[in-house]
User: Which sequence fits this backbone?
């Protein structure tokens, strides 16, 4: 049943994306930029709805009150394709720094260009990175929110965190709050497989880290606060969804958490 539902969801998910892009493109490209964001946000909502109805996966968000007004860095855990789009409707006017190759994809790249997403050559240094920072400042000056995945790439649930120091540099240079987000969509929409799993999970938006800290102190705080919340949600999510296949990384982390609790109780 999971296999059949996964095939049906994957088919409808991509059909929904392609059909919306083609049918709504004339409207989208005629709309003002920010108003046009309603179209990809509506697609995100419909995709979440499809996953709930077809696969049986739902979620809830804690901490929406922690989202500040104006510009900030939104820093979620990154485990799945799910977390690249599902939270878009909850942000006012987000901007991504993207691999430049993504901007070359027909339709998708055109949509991203209209929203003034910021392409970057990951192998570049020097002036190119200076230009990226300049573009980022320009977008944030209008009140937009920058989405950065602190670990850079998708990591399986429970995997040892590998945070990139680049977010500390952005925090220092931009001088805006950072809002960390803990969640485990990778248990339900794992990377590198077509299978999707039913269940329910939480997304936890943490209180913003204010600007002005020493970058090293910020970096340590970001990791500690995010991983603490991530561990709490991992234990809770697995306990509330006993049917889930637990990946080795999550099983290992659960054992480490249990061992630490036993040691603290002695």
Assistant:
């Amino acid at each position: 049943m999971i296999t059949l539902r996964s095939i049906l969801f994957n088919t409808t998910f991509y059909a929904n994306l392609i059909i919306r892009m083609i049918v709504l493109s004339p409207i989208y490209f005629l709309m003002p930029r920010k108003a046009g964001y309603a179209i990809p946000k509506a697609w995100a909502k419909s995709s979440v709805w499809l996953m709930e109805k077809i696969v049986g996966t739902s979620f809830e968000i804690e901490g929406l009150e922690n989202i500040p007004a104006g510009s900030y860095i939104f820093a979620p855990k990154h485990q799945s394709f799910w977390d690249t789009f599902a939270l878009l409707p909850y942000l006012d006017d987000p901007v991504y720094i993207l691999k430049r190759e993504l901007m070359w994809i027909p339709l998708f790249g055109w949509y991203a260009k209209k929203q003034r997403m910021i392409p970057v050559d990951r192998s570049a240094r020097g002036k190119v990175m200076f230009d990226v920072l300049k573009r980022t400042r320009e977008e944030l000056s209008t009140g937009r929110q920058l989405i950065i995945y602190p670990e850079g790439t998708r990591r399986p649930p429970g995997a040892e965190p590998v945070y990139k120091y680049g977010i500390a540099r952005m925090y220092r240079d931009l001088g805006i709050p950072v809002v960390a987000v803990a969640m485990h969509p990778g248990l339900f929409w794992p990377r590198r497989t077509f299978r999707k799993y039913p269940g329910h999970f939480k997304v936890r938006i943490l209180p913003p880290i204010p600007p002005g800290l020493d970058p090293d102190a910020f970096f340590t705080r970001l990791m500690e606060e995010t991983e603490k919340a991530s561990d709490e949600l991992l234990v809770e999510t697995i306990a509330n969804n006993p049917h889930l296949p637990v990946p080795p990384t999550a099983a290992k982390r659960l054992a480490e958490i249990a061992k630490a609790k036993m040691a603290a109780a002695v």
Q: What stands out?
A: The chain has a mean pLDDT of 93. The chain has one domain: 58-265.
